[in-house]
Write a structure and sequence with these properties.
The protein is mainly alpha-helical and about 350 residues long. It has helices at about 1-60, 65-115, 130-185, 195-235, 255-265, 270-325, 345-360. Helix 4 (about 195-235) packs antiparallel against helix 6 and helix 6 (about 270-325) runs antiparallel to helix 7 (about 345-360). Belongs to the CCDC149 family.
Length: about 350
């Protein structure tokens, strides 16, 4: 069975090979017929050209010899002129191809020298034809990319000019607004009103106002807590802190220290009153810590606002220094003198004092 299968496979392979050979034979016969047809056409063309050549050489036998020579000379002159035109066109085409080939050759040599720099042991590198074509195509793509980049650069320069024009327009508008605002607010020559400075001051005051509202809310909560503590203290017995009086929830550091000193050295009895006192003490301490954390957060927020304010003022002063409207002490000033007190509001110190007093 295995031998039969092997023979069957061999027979199938032979059949396939025979089919392939028959197809190749058909293609070869078709090519042979085409070549025969081309050979016959070339033979006929050769005979026709040979006949024309003999007619040109011998001339028309019906004409006399003088006329025959004139006709031959005119025909030769026309043929020579046409041949000269063809040759001149071919020369132009060849010169153009030569110039392109020289340019490509120069670029390829430059590329080869760049690749050979620092590699003396390799020697001269010969590029095959397909690598040269790849290099030429890469150079063409690089040229197209360079043209696109030049066009994009031109577009960007035009856009930059438009942006500069818009900037000059907005600058003139801001100057006019500053002049009008200065005229409306009293026309003080010693103090120039700046819209940007007013916007910065307004933003700073808004942040300070929100922070003060939060501090007022915190103070109100503390006041309510102290009021409740005082009411509880008034309602309690006037003989001081008895063992039956629970803690009010608001303790001073001195009261906490006294309680710890009183309870030091002896263990408290496990009574509901002692447990309640300890819970009240822990609650009071946690509330005090929470209040201190809130105060610290408000102080950090205040510092952040002041830092932003200082950075804005530094940027404004740097802008004025670059524009020539302000300079350091001892240096020549411009035509306009601007004081630093104009950019720092007078109420800032009072607000800082209020914030520090509220933190304490």
């Amino acid at each position: 069975c295995t031998g039969f299968l092997v023979c069957k496979r061999k027979l199938d392979s032979k059949k396939e090979a025979l089919l392939i050979l028959s197809k190749e034979l058909d293609t070869c016969q078709q090519e042979r017929d085409q070549y025969k047809l081309m050979a016959n056409q070339l033979r006929e063309r050769h005979q026709g050209l040979k006949k024309k050549y003999r007619e040109l050489i011998d001339g028309d036998p019906s004409l006399p010899p003088e006329k025959r020579n004139q006709v031959n000379l005119a025909q030769l002159l026309r043929d020579s002129r046409e041949r000269v035109k063809q040759l001149s066109e071919e020369v132009k085409d060849l010169t153009q191809r030569l110039a392109e080939a020289q340019g490509d050759n120069k670029l390829l040599r430059m590329t080869i020298t760049k690749q050979r720099l620092g590699d003396d042991e390799v020697g001269v590198r010969h590029f095959p034809a397909h690598e040269r074509e790849d290099l030429v195509s890469q150079l063409e793509r690089a040229g197209l990319q360079m043209e696109e980049m030049e066009n994009s650069i031109k577009a960007l320069t035009d856009e930059l000019q438009d942006v500069k024009a818009e900037r000059s327009v907005f600058k003139e508008k801001a100057d006019r607004l500053n002049v009008e605002l200065n005229h409306i607010l009293g026309n003080h020559e010693s103090r120039i009103i700046d819209v940007d400075a007013l916007c910065m001051e307004n933003r700073y005051l808004h942040e300070r106002f929100t922070q003060l509202q939060e501090e007022v809310t915190l103070l109100k909560s503390n006041i309510m807590k102290y009021k409740t503590a005082l009411e509880r203290r008034k309602n309690s017995s006037p003989h001081g802190r008895s063992s039956n009086t629970p803690l009010t929830g608001v303790l001073s550091p001195k009261q906490v220290q006294e309680m710890l000193l009183e309870e030091q050295g002896c263990s408290l009895p496990l009574t509901p009153q002692s447990i309640s006192d300890l819970k009240s003490l822990a609650t009071a301490l946690l509330e005090t810590i929470h209040e201190k954390n809130l105060v610290i957060q408000h102080q950090r927020h205040t510092n952040r606002i002041l830092g932003n304010r200082v950075s804005d003022l530094e940027g404004k002063l740097r802008t004025l220094e670059v524009s020539g409207l302000w300079s350091l002490p001892g240096e020549p000033m411009g035509q306009v003198k601007i004081k630093f007190s104009h950019f720092v509001p007078k109420r800032e110190t009072n607000q800082n004092q209020c914030s520090t007093s509220s933190d304490h």
